[in-house]
Write a structure and sequence with these properties.
Structural class: alpha+beta
Number of helices: 1
Number of strands: 6
Shape: elongated
Distance between the termini: 37 Å
Radius of gyration: 16 Å
Strand order of the largest sheet: 3-2-1-6
Strand content: 35-45%
Helix content: 10-25%
Oligomer: single chain
Order of helices and strands: EEEHEEE
Length: about 80
């Protein structure tokens, strides 16, 4: 099973969380970013509806498949320690 990591980090003069190389909005405090990361991680695990999806791969080829609304990843919030 895939685990999606939400990492709380200092960013752009404040705090944010990131997934891979993508940052959230910047929050004024560490606690606000941690709360937002925890909320986003919890929502990621909620089952949805099974539906058809289309996507384009790196080579420009289009693919169609059915995505199960119950196939949700595990999530983890990684908290960078606050610096003094």
């Amino acid at each position: 099973m895939v685990t999606v990591k939400y990492e709380v980090v200092e960013h752009d003069g404040g705090w944010a969380y990131k997934v891979g190389d993508v940052f959230s909005e910047t929050f004024p405090s560490h606690d606000a970013a941690l709360s937002a990361a925890s909320d986003a991680a919890a929502r990621q695990t909620v089952a949805g509806e099974t539906d058809g999806i289309q996507y384009q791969d790196r080579d420009g080829r289009w693919h169609e498949e059915v995505a199960s609304g119950r196939d949700r990843p595990a999530t983890e919030v990684v908290d960078e320690p606050e610096r003094s």
